[in-house]
Amino acid sequence: MRAAGFVLAGGLSSRMGRDKALLRHWGVPLVVRAAAAVADAAGSVTILGDPGTYGRFGWPALADTVPGLGPMGALLTALENTRAEWNVLVACDMPDLSRELLRELLAKTARTRGRCVAPVTEDGFEPLCAVYRRTALPEVRAAIAAGHLAMRDLLPLLDVVPVRGLDPACFRNLNTPVEWNGYSHRR
Questions:
Q1: CB 48 within 8 A of CB 9
Q2: Mean pLDDT for the chain?
Q3: Mean pLDDT for each consecutive 10-residue tract of the chain (187 residues)?
Q4: CA 154 from chain center: how many Å?
């Protein structure tokens, strides 16, 4: 298997005050929108989060191997449970993410020696909409063992292939009720 997809849905949503993966946009939960885009681009999708909550959407769901590590724990879970060489990892709270953008990222994996393909925004790499090679697992484990849980700190260790020129709106994530209300009411 060349590619697999994973959607992060198991976060605490502490700033939102409720499970943002289940927020509905145009009647569809954000996690379902993200999972459909990932499945279409990668050929499969697994939701990383509580199977009791997210398993009802028709795709496999996995709880984090090591709870409480945030996105780094989700990446660990994905890479420990994949057979694919390349693994799309996206956060569920990017409602403007498209399957076309994900296909573009996957296309960049064809001839690279790097272990991550990630968009570059004005803030740097976007680690929660990236494609990770399974061989990045040792660096993920080492970062966790050292207590380095920031995804942006991991990327320089993975020979990242930068993808520039993508629409920054695709990576807008919604973390607070104000952001959600501003987004959901403008569409």
A1: yes
A2: 90
A3: 90 69 84 96 96 95 95 97 97 91 94 93 92 98 96 92 89 75 65
A4: 14
Strands 46-48 and 3-8: parallel
| Amino acid in the structure at residue 142 | A
Q: Are 46 and 78 in contact (CB under 8 A)?
A: yes
* DSSP β-bridge partners for residue 89: 6, 130
So what's the pLDDT on residue 53?
94
Strand-pair partners of 125: 120
The CA distance from 134 to 69, in Å, is 19
Homologous superfamily of the 3-186 domain (CATH): Spore Coat Polysaccharide Biosynthesis Protein SpsA; Chain A (3.90.550.10)
Query: Domain segments of the chain: what residues?
Result: 3-186
Q: What's the token pair of residue 72?
A: 């780094």
Q: What is the DSSP letter of 162?
A: E
CB 2 within 8 A of CB 86: yes
Measured distance CA(45)–CA(50) in Å, rounded: 15
Task: Please provide the DSSP assignment of 88-131 as one string.
Answer: EEEETT-TT--HHHHHHHHHTTTT---SEEEEEETTEE-TTEEE
- Count of other CB atoms within 10 angstroms of residue 7: 34
Specify which residues 91 forms β-bridges with.
Answer: 8
- Using one digit for the tens of pLDDT, what is the confidence trace for 149-183? 999 889 989 999 999 998 888 888 777 768 767 77
